[in-house]
Amino acid sequence: MTQQIKIMMLGGVRENGKNMYGVQVDDEIFVLDAGLKYPDSSLLGIDIVIPDLQFFCRLWR
User: What is the residue extent of each domain of the chain?
Assistant: First the structure.
């Protein structure tokens, strides 16, 4: 039986921070390095910016 493996880079690509990587093996998904980003001066009052997990939520339904 062969396994299908997909590697996904979501957020943080060519960015400093907020990186997230996912590996899908058949029907299982492993999230690796779900980082955060510290905001710049345009986001006053925001302490941290986290990656958007909506992509993974749609896959798990």
Answer: 5-60
Q: For tokens 């997230």, what's the residue? A: 20
How confident is the model over 4-60, as pLDDT tens digits? 999 988 766 677 777 788 898 988 888 887 778 888 889 899 998 877 778 777 766
Q: Is pTM beyond 0.70 here?
A: no
Residues 6+ apart with CB under 8 A from 24: 4, 5, 6, 7, 8, 30, 59
